[in-house]
Design goal:
single chain, mainly beta, twelve-stranded mixed beta sheet, two-stranded parallel ribbon, globular
Length: 258
């Protein structure tokens, strides 16, 4: 098992905005708390979707750099830093990831299964990633203990592809306590389905893409459910549209504003 300790310098903190209740909610939690859950499920500092796509991109980038010290396909490495993976095989890996960004602390344990698919020329074509994780994060607005899964296929490994392209689903479930409403606590579930998320090569920055999101759960006041659409706009930002309201989310630190 590899252990990774991260302390990141976040981008400029975006102002935290309020959200209006939508017709899809019973009112068990306010829409701003639901947006806190959505932002945390997207951001880097709480092992959100951004962290997952970057980790998936790291492995793809390594495979994409086989001629410059990256992984050797269908061969045996010549030094300790070279990893061999044959076409059609699956590699298991795990990592402990903990650290802080701004005033958010996080700790997660992640397991990966990566299957390499090659083209007819025996060159890397795509990676199928199956990920499980569990852990916790503590932010100024929300504390959560959760576990989840992520299943993503990343394409664009061929040398002539200008971007990586990811498609898949990210799910996290657990318990939450809101710090902006001391009476709001309970169980939550966030489901994000991603379509054609573009990562730059070689930097792995999110360039574009879309997703649908469902935030649901229970609290002492009953059940709640919100749905929305996400558009990734580059520059570590994304928009979340719920009804007619658009929220701008910082993908590094999980803050948002209207």
């Amino acid at each position: 098992m590899k252990t990774l300790k991260l302390t990141l310098i976040a981008a400029v903190l975006l102002a935290v905005g309020s959200c209006k209740k939508t017709d899809t909610s019973t009112g068990a939690v306010t829409a701003d708390i639901a947006t806190d859950m959505a932002a945390a499920s997207l951001s880097q500092n709480s092992f959100g979707l951004t962290s997952v796509t970057d980790n998936v991109g790291v492995n793809a980038q390594t495979l994409n750099s086989i001629h410059t010290g990256g992984q050797v396909i269908n061969g045996v490495g010549t030094n300790a830093t070279t990893t061999a993976q044959a076409c059609g095989t699956t590699v298991a890996d795990s990592v402990s990831n903990s650290g802080s960004i701004e005033s958010v602390t996080f700790s997660y344990f992640i397991k990966y299964l990566r299957t390499l698919n090659c083209n007819t020329s025996n060159q890397p074509d795509n990676l199928v990633n199956s990920i499980t994780f569990h852990g916790n994060y503590d932010s100024p607005r929300l504390t959560s203990m959760d576990a989840g899964t992520a299943n993503f296929t990343i394409a664009g490994l061929t040398t002539n592809a200008t971007n990586f392209v990811l498609n898949g689903e990210y799910i996290r479930k657990g318990s939450f306590t809101s710090k902006v409403d001391t009476k709001a606590s309970g169980a939550s579930s966030v489901d994000i389905k991603v379509t054609n998320l573009m990562l730059s090569k070689p930097g792995r920055a999110i360039v574009s893409g879309t997703a649908t999101i469902t935030i649901s759960g229970t609290s002492a006041k009953g059940t709640f459910s919100y749905t929305g659409t996400i558009t990734f706009t580059g520059g570590n930002t994304a928009t979340l549209t719920v009804g007619t309201v658009v929220y701008y989310i910082n993908l590094v630190n999980g803050t948002f504003h209207k």
